[in-house]
Amino acid sequence: MSFLFKLSRSTLRLSVxxxxxxxxxxNSNHQRITVELGDKKLEISSGKFARFADGSAVVxxxxxxxxxxxxxxxxxxxxxxxxxxxDYRQKAAAASLIPNNYLxxxxxxxxxxxxxxxLIDRSIRPLFPAGYFYDTQIMCNLLTVDDVNDPDVxxxxxxxxxxxxxxxxxxxxxxxxxxxxxxxxxxxxxxRAEMALSTLNMIVAGAPSSQVVMIEASAENVLQQDxxxxxxxxxxxxxxxIHAIQQMARQHKVVKRSPVKLFSPPADIVEHVRRVSSxxxxxxxxxxxxxxxxxxxxxxKIRLETEEDLKENFPEAEPYExxxxxxxxxxxxxxxxxxxxxxxCDGRELNALRDISCEIDLFKRLHGSALFQRGQTQVxxxxxxxxxxxxxxxxxxxxxxxxxxxxxxxxxxxxxxxxTNEIGKVGRMSRRELGHGALAEKSLRPVIxxxxxxxxxVTAEVLESNGSSSMASxxxxxxxxxxxxxxxxxxxxxxxxxxxxxxxxxxxxxxxDYRLLTDILGIEDYxxxxxxxxxxxxxxxxxxxxxxxxxxxxxxxxxEAIQQATVAxxxxxxxxxxxxxxxxxxxxENGPVVETIKVPMSRRARFIGPGGLNINRLQAQTGVKISxxxxxxxxxxxxxxxxxxxxxxxxxxxxxxxxxxxxxFGAIYKATITEIRDIGVMxxxxxxxxxxxxxxxxxxxxxxxxPSALGLDVGQEIQVKYFGRDPTDGRMRISRKVLxxxxxTVVKTLSEKQSIVMGSNAVSSNS
Length: 767
Hints:
By secondary structure, the protein is an alpha+beta fold. Helices cover 30% and strands 27% of the residues. This is Polyribonucleotide nucleotidyltransferase 1, mitochondrial.
């Protein structure tokens, strides 16, 4: 059976060819469908691997293949939320590599694995039925990975296919594509080589009827109109993948299981809560004097009183039914105020920002610092400069699987429990913290200069949180970078847009009415339908992240959200400009210093020292970091000018130029033996010089095992010929053997005065 879908030329010619193969085997049929996306083919197959799973699928593009399995328990979980776990793991075997750790196996979970797991989770979670509290696990197993196609988008499509082909209740399928932009042209699922030239990296997950369920994007200051066009192109291509998975499900004759129960509160309990508590709840939500903590306390007081009332009137009700009934009424009242009365719980207009204040240079000793306050969300950002060797270096497996290069810019996001008046564990970074930090880092990375001489670390610590702390981190990070004197190309600001919507009673997947909210509070995120985060400069967009809690967003809503966020972003930038307009012309006086020094070949051995002794001692004593650029050039990084001054004194003493008499190449000198060793003798050509090794092989024409075989002893004078310095390691090259021949030679002698002068500027050599 074959279907051909023709799209407009601007969205790339695309066709879908469904090739259904039935391979008769026990308990399953092997199905395969190919989706042609321009010149690329996406192949989805099922029925061959992992047949004990509730659902499994393999998605392949060229030589990159990902197998995804889905399993959901038939007994409900005691948790009061959808217990979904997504595990995406990078496999060394998929890239034909062996892990480089001591066990030679995959250990722990890398940041990229966690971020990809979150990407898949955010794409599929909105389509599970409300109240489906059954443990569900999605596992992504990389079968093979080439150096052309990234597996993350394939994993999203694999999760969609595995769930659609299983009996797990799920309102899919979805489709996902990556959109790149090269020279203004949109590319679907571009290769790594194409992505290296792209100014846009966008992953779009779409639902049926051209709706959006997830967007994750980073961009190099892409214009708003180009960004909107990329979203539309991506969504249109996702529909072809959705059609293919739907065709597979029909051929597979999938029948979804009926859960024992969906965890929703009984209507009579909800009605009782509405009757006894709605007025008091409404009063709290319309009291604009409340802040986060006081509002939570007021609602919690009503909750406790209502629960006591429900226990008396509904003694057989389960705890979750009581809790969910109260939550349902709270959500209903909160959303009704926004939808029908255009009222927010803090009194703002729907498109108004919270009060914003900015400060920079809070701590003089820091390389850069800033405090960004938006309402009750407060983030302290600090800048630390390090040597280029401090940059993040990807391990071999990550490089092979994802093509990640070294990063000399990083942002670390911290969310301590006191930021929300809670007590919790400290030290272990959560997936949420990692995801928020990655988004803030994406927001700022495009404005960082490529040739900056230091590695930059931004630390964003959330001190207070009441919504949109990741975007506050982007704002604070931009201010701190300018305070540190980093010549960023433009200031960056970010904002979160929320959504309160009303579903069409006849078609629950369609939105009948909605309101967009600018700069949402934590409660507006919790009780709303969308968290739409956008960051960028006055010119364009640098990052976008869209998470939804409903089965999908119409493109119209997405376009309006981008426009509303762009207006808010420019308003925030105007406030930030009052604090600092452009980066400092110079870095702070106590900032780091980098200098390049030349070490003559004759001095390099002494500069490095035996086994790197001198360099290690210099770094330990002064705090500098030294790296070799080429044979004679070293780069010295000092965290502070004082450290560089100390290092310079040490280096100058070792590396100062010889102004006195130099040894003459090919000349013969008298050398004094200072030490007898098994491999040779240590000698000095003049007083006060560092002894150098005269190896056994250079003592005599015949082979000897020990210098004593020649009758040599400490204090004895012998004649040696000088051949300069070894160009590779700077060692002095001398020989006695070449003088043991009938050829007449003239011995060079040094006067005592000359020897003393030469000794004070002696050329060192490794012993």
